[in-house]
Every structure is written in structure tokens, then in C-alpha cells.
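Appendix B. Raw example, untouched.
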Amino acid sequence: MIAALAAAMAITGGASDVILPGKADLPVIEGSSLMADCLMLQERLAASGKPFQCVGTPMARADEITRAYGASARTLGWLSSGGLANMVSFHRPLSDGRCEGLAFAGFPTTEAMAPSDLAMIIVLYSPTNDCPPPRPVP
């Protein structure tokens, strides 16, 4: 099991310090790493037609790391659009009056959800959306 988790956390090649280069340009937060295969969800996520990447972090730090990604996104001009129990979304206005979107969705990778188990955060980019009104960040 530990070997499988280590394989899932394999850092991808290329721009390993940036999530969605040229789109979101988010630096990888310390305590997380890019996941090479999104735990075999690659094909399903690719079917959305939207650029995405996945990061892994220990379950015990998943909330903290997701919030850190949100804070990082805000420094790059992304505005909070809301969220659900395991997802937060952001938008950034474009010059044509529309917005680009960015979402972070977190998932456990085991049923046990032990603090040391791997959590996966999917980062999904939407090139154009209607602009929602900004929401205050809690």
C-alpha cells in the first residue's frame, strides 16, 4: 500500500513547480506535490475538455493546503466564486467581459481517511465562463 501511495505521489516531469502553466500559474505549495496520474482519473477528467492537474498531500493537511492554494490564487488576481463541502471556485475577469474559472476539489484516496493517507486535490481550469459576482472570503 505504501508503495502504491508513493507511486501516486510521483512528481510529474516538466514544469514541476507550477500548476497549470500558462493558465493558472500556481506555484506548488510546500507539503503537496503534483500527481502523475490523478489516481487513474486522468481519462475521466480529460473528457471534460478542460485543462487540469492533480496534487497530493497528506489527509491531515488537505484543508490547510487547499486554503493555501486559494490564497495563492487570490494573489494572482483570482476572485472567490463560492464553493461546496469539498470544492472551492474562483474566477478572473478577461478583457472581453467574460471570466476564466479555476476550481479546487479535494478527495480522500482511501476509505479509512487516516491522517497520513493521501488526499488528492484536483485543480480544474475553465477558459471562459460568465462572471459570477465576487464573494467574500471567510
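End of appendix B.
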